[in-house]
Request: fold
Amino acid sequence: MIQRIQTLFLLLAAAAGGGLFLPLPLARTPQPQPGGLFSDGLLTVTDDVLLSVLLGLGGGLAFAAIFLFRNRPLQIRLTGLAFLVGLAGLGLGLYHFFTQGQAAAAEPALGLALPVLFAVLCLLAIRFIRKDEELVRSMDRLR
Reply:
């Protein structure tokens, strides 16, 4: 389980999904904006419940996929679902950034890179899980 590269990618993706709940802002404004997501001058994951649920679910799915190494087709599907959920979270974060951040002159922050990193790591994990599955199928043909 641990000796496979896709396990490392899934573990890093789960860490990136969980790292979004650290006090890393997705965007920041020079002045706090009253009555909105930028009321403290920062847009964080915990400012929006749906954003928190989507990114938390994506990280949880990536972590759960680590333990499905015996069932690679299910592992691929679960990692793909984690990718889609993480992409939806990224889209929602960008939506908030462009709609509410426009009026507040918001600037992107370091936290906006974590959902992108999460998506890339999920895609890399899917690629290497597929390679493993192809290797196992080719060995089955030789028997």
Summary: The longest strand covers residues 27-28.
